[in-house]
Amino acid sequence: MENIYANISAETVKVLHDPNIETQDVTSSGMAGRQQFDNRVASDFEEEQTKLLTETDQLMGEIVNLQNKLVFMEHHFKMGWHHFGSSFYLFSTVEKTWEQSKQDCVGSGADLVIIEGREEQNFINGFNGMFWIGLSDRETEGSWKWVDGTPLTIEYWKSGEPNSYGGEEDCAERSLIYSNTNQSWNDVACGQLKLGICEKVAYP
To answer: Which Pfam families does UniProt cross-reference here (predicted)?
Structure first.
């Protein structure tokens, strides 16, 4: 018996089963290592599974967002809106005062157009007609502001404009007659009847 125990390592654990079942020898260090490995594999699996589920949710959200944008755009195209950059534009077909045109735009979830650069200016100039734009100095003479309250920084006035002829020209139009696409704005009386250009964000 002593010879038998002499051949067994101090870490060896004798696991005795039913007499009819084979006896198994397992070291305690081996069991602990195996358990740690299994735990690590399970943890890595759960982490990867969580990551994949998160990515799947994000992709599904992007798909739904794109579908909503498509529906939104199709609706506006059917209603006569034009798309440029990050905005939709509606060119009215009924002449109204500056304030009336503004209110029509607001009623459509938009406002009179705010021209923020040369590309947008060129886009606007691609349509024929005299159109109200969202620019005025109604609050303070000579202090031109857009409908959102921001001051005018980029200007495309016709030569000699704005001149506030007669002291009552407080609203801006995109003029019908101009020789330079970068000089097409004119100041006129706000009560005149003209077409209007509405603008709204394309992807709210």
So the answer is: Lectin_C (PF00059)
pTM: 0.68
- What are the phi and psi torsion angles at 84 (to 5°)? -150, 130
Residue 166 is given by DSSP the state: G
- Domain locations along the chain: 1-78, 82-201
d(CA 8, CA 17) in angstroms, rounded, equals 18
- Tens of pLDDT, residue by residue over 103-129, are 999 999 999 999 999 999 999 999 999
Superfamily designation of domain 82-201:
Mannose-Binding Protein A, subunit A (3.10.100.10)
Sign for the pseudo-dihedral over CA of 63, 68, 71, 77? negative
Amino acid at 34: R
B/e letters for 99-131, b = 16+ CB within 10 Å, e = fewer, are: ebbbebbeebebbbbbbeeeebbebbbeeebbb
